[in-house]
Amino acid sequence: MKKIIISTFAISALLFTTSCEDDFDNDVNDVVVTKGEADFSKYISLGNSLTSGYRDAALYRSGQNESYPSMIAMQMKLAGGGEFKQPLMPNDTGGFTNLFNPTTGDFAGKYTLTVVNGALSPGPTAPGAALDNVTSAGPYQNMGVPGAKVAHLLAPGYGSQAGLLTGTANPYFVRFATSATTSVLGDALSQNPTFVSLWIGNNDVLGYATSGGDGSNPITPVDGAVGVGFTNTYTALVGLLFPAGTTRKGVIANIPNVTSVPYFTRVPAMPLTNLTDTQVAQLNTAYATYNAGLLNAKNLGAINDAEYQRRLIKFTAGAVANGAVIVDKDLTGAGALPKYRQTTAKDFILLPASRVLTPQAGGGTSVPLEDKLVLTELEAAKVTTATAAFNTAIKSVATAKNLAFVDANAKMEELNSKSGITWDGVKYTATFVSGGAFSLDGVHLTGRGYAIIANEFIKSINDKYKSTLPQVNPNNYSGVTFP
Q1: Which of 75, 145, 178, 426 is deepest in the core (most CB within 10 A)?
Q2: Distance CA 448, CA 441 (A)
Q3: Angle between the 230-241 and 377-400 helix axes, to the nearest 10 degrees?
Q4: What pLDDT is attached to residue 29?
């Protein structure tokens, strides 16, 4: 059975694959830096974990220092930009000791690579400290809040300490909110920014996808009132940031299709290969009763032949790729029969499943994978449909408000292609660990990945406002750290 682990071969050589192509737009050494039609004197960034610099499944100090807004702010200073402060974590580990949940892993420290049984494997570290409060050192211009959805930026009390007990507050905003009743948007507007970047909406669909569509974190409805539906909430948010008659300029970005990131692509959809004849005989015998029950259900008319064929469990020995056995709640009920089937090439097995897809654990074979570990074809279609609708709304608002627009979805798709993105001879792709752009959690970027995104924002700002902010060099930032 195939082990889903990272070979020790995935070392720096893989991070520095070169190509004759380059993503330099032009040589900026002789370009005079100007602000154009924009005013960068008070730049504020709004968003979620991607804006905060979150990486390796945690928010920690060195990751924050390589957030894409901090890179943009550094370039803005060359054109009259002002101070840009971030609510830095107290350590370089992340997590909160007083909020840590050992069962779910919530608020653990950052992921690191360690050698396990001769291979590199990512795993969490212990949280670094208790939840702290840094409000007194503010105000802060990076207002990215990990976990935030669109409606959360408008929500009063999202930074209330008491709200942590009721689930209405976010500990990352509690750290720097100016009061228990304020909102992220309120604290941003109180600084009277001259320029704003906004990248929000990922979590409105990502939470559903990363939970395998198990129902614990539903997709935000496209339609509905402000605070309920994505379109109206996003439109209201941008309207408050850029009211009619304002001179404030800004840039907004759409959201990537989450199924293009390593969290959904690292583990093959049909992951079980090189099964022995003995293993196959044992497995097929173990599922014989289930298969017989399916046949009986078909004969009784409880399920049709197409579903019978889809649900039949059968393993094949040799180099053949076998689907993993999963629980699929969307299958037709057939009496007492469990809702089992094997994955197909159109399903997505999530990164955490790699811990149980081993001969020892029996995950996907003798033990079906849980619903939360698989995004099925049907669930993935819901994600794709919602993402497309959200992005239509975002682009429409950008046009209506005459703002710069970043097609982050297209850039992530480019990273996910075989050719990837090359910068000064260094190639970046969405390949887990070895691609260089994504951190160990498979969702968030490395410093180098955030630099690629920073450049997309910079290019859009320059195009829209006739500024000449220089791009940053992704190769100057950090990637995955090897032991």
Answers
A1: 145
A2: 15
A3: 30
A4: 56
Distance CA 161, CA 178 (A): 12
Quick one: pLDDT band at residue 158, thresholds 50, 70, 90? very high
pTM of the model: 0.92
Pair 475, 11: CB distance under 8 Å: no
Q: Which two tokens stand for residue 435?
A: 């691609």
d(CA 176, CA 169) in angstroms, rounded, equals 12
Give whole-number Cα distances, 222 to 233, 275, 386, 396, in Å: 10, 44, 7, 14
Both tokens assigned to 447: 């410093």
- Dist CA 159 CA 70 (whole Å): 22
Look over the chain and give the mean of its residue pLDDT values, rounded to a whole number: 92
Question: Side-chain half-sphere of 387: how many Cα atoms within 13 Å?
Answer: 25
* Residues 6+ away with beta carbon under 8 Å from 155: 168, 183, 184, 227
Give me the amino acid identity at 318: G
Instruction: Please give the Cα distance from 157 to 178 (Å, whole number).
Output: 10
Q: In this structure, what is the dihedral angle of CA atoms 7, 13, 17, 18, given to the nearest 10 degrees?
A: -170
**pLDDT > 90: percent of the chain:** 87
Q: Which two tokens stand for residue 173?
A: 């905003």
- In this prediction, residue 72 carries a pLDDT of 98
Distance CA 151, CA 236 (A): 10
Query: What sign does the CA torsion over 294, 212, 106, 432 have?
Result: positive
Average pLDDT, stretch 207-235? 97
